[in-house]
């Protein structure tokens, strides 16, 4: 970074100030130490087996086995080397490349799986398929959060958009017997919640976080009331939505390991692929994205070049609500198959954490959502493998990963400058 510094002759000159970034290496060191302590005080012996293909796979791959104890400590050695690398970068005033935390995370997860599966079997394809399935609503919510905060509005109401989208999808898909109508209804439901958020935070200048929290409570109460008063007495007519079925893509679905995970999915998952690509491309490569980022970073400057700041915020928050509503539709049109009270279970807040962890970038936020989905599915696998970890900690695992991710990595970056700040035209 640069700063002003006095020269010997009394003039003021620009000087370069070097800054050490210690948060990443310290986080890696803590994670390595925790794994080492786990392997030391709760050792597990035997053979850890990973199944790379299912019986239905076109190309069958053999199972891969590792000696548990030896493999765990070898992987800890690699984690130590990566941690030292990060400390060396910090001591040299260099920023560590993104590849290092990614490789570290993969090796750490692999080491933990080797330890957990001692004497057992890890179905790799099933683990990844479940992780992607649990990540779908988080990804849609995170994309909605990215658009909202990039335009200057903190979208705390993702949870409410999920819940109202799920309710609308279940109701309309049950009435029309058409999941696509339910999907459109979910988008409309998400837009309605976003409309209220935008109206109060942009037009009436109410604190955005407070409006978002109130909306979450309001939608939770409203959908709970409508569920008891409308859906429960008429369950067969109003709460039996037609669900999306899987569409297998020829050839691509035959790719070992990732083929069944990525290319034997429902319409909403394929729509997710397209949405991530469009938002990532549009945010950085189009006029719409340039204006959106300008409004979120410096609304006064955007206003001077003719951009209608509040109008832009209003419509982009509505777009964010539509995208989050699709995430809500996934619950009732794919995952569960009917609406239940508070079925989103706080996932909207995890999606908001993915936005922060992903540095307000659609691709990074998507990867963060995938991480949280993987942690949730890992909880289920560890229960099946009967690891010596208390079941209460298993339930905490996704939220612990969320806290570690946000506290450990997101503290290094700054969000959009105008996020959460109302714009009053002078």
Automatic annotation (TrEMBL):
Swiss-Prot/TrEMBL keywords: Cell membrane, Membrane, Transmembrane, Transmembrane helix
Transmembrane segments: 24-44, 64-86, 98-118, 124-146, 153-174, 180-202, 209-230, 267-284, 314-337, 343-360, 367-387, 393-411
A Pfam family it matches: BPD_transp_2
Lineage: Bacteria, Bacillati, Actinomycetota, Actinomycetes, Micrococcales
Membrane topology annotation: Multi-pass membrane protein
Matching PANTHER family: GUANOSINE ABC TRANSPORTER PERMEASE PROTEIN NUPQ, SUGAR ABC TRANSPORTER INTEGRAL MEMBRANE PROTEIN-RELATED
Protein localization: Cell membrane
Entry protein name: ABC transporter permease
């Amino acid at each position: 970074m640069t700063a002003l510094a006095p020269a010997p002759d009394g003039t003021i000159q620009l000087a370069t100030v070097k800054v050490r970034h210690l948060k990443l290496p310290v986080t890696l060191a803590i994670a390595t130490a925790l794994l080492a302590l786990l392997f030391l005080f709760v050792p597990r012996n035997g053979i850890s087996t990973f199944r790379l293909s299912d019986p239905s796979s076109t190309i069958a791959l053999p199972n891969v086995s590792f000696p548990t104890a030896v493999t765990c400590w070898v992987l800890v050695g690699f984690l130590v080397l990566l941690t030292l690398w990060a400390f060396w970068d910090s001591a040299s005033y260099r920023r560590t490349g993104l590849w290092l935390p990614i490789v570290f995370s993969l090796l750490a997860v692999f080491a933990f799986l080797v330890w957990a599966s001692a004497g057992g079997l890890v179905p790799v394809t099933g683990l990844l398929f479940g992780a992607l399935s649990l990540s779908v609503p988080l990804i849609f919510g995170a994309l909605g959060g990215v658009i909202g905060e990039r335009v200057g509005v903190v979208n705390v109401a993702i949870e409410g958009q999920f819940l109202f989208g799920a309710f609308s999808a279940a109701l309309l898909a049950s009435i029309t017997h058409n999941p696509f109508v339910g999907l459109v209804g979910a988008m409309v439901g998400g837009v309605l919640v976003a409309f209220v958020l935008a109206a109060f935070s942009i037009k009436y200048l109410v604190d955005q976080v407070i409006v978002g929290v109130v909306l979450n409570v309001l939608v939770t109460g409203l959908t709970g009331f409508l569920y008891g008063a409308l859906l429960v007495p008429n369950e067969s007519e109003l709460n039996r939505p037609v669900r999306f079925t899987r569409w297998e893509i020829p050839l691509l679905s035959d790719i070992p390991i990732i083929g069944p995970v990525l290319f034997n999915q429902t319409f909403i998952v394929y729509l997710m692929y397209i949405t991530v690509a469009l938002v990532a491309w549009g945010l950085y490569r189009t006029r719409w994205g340039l204006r959106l980022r300008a409004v979120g970073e410096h609304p006064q400057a955007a206003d001077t070049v003719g951009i209608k700041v509040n109008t832009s915020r209003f419509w982009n928050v509505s777009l964010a609500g539509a995208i989050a509503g699709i995430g809500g539709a996934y619950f009732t049109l794919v995952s569960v198959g009917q609406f239940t009270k508070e079925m989103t279970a706080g996932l909207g807040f995890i999606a908001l954490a993915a936005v922060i962890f992903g540095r307000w970038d659609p691709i990074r936020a998507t990867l963060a959502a995938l991480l949280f989905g993987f942690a949730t599915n890992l909880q289920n696998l560890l229960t099946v493998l009967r690891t010596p970890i208390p079941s209460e900690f298993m339930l905490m695992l996704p939220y612990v990963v969320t806290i570690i991710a946000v506290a450990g990595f997101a503290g290094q970056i700054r969000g959009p400058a105008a996020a959460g700040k109302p714009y009053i035209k002078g």
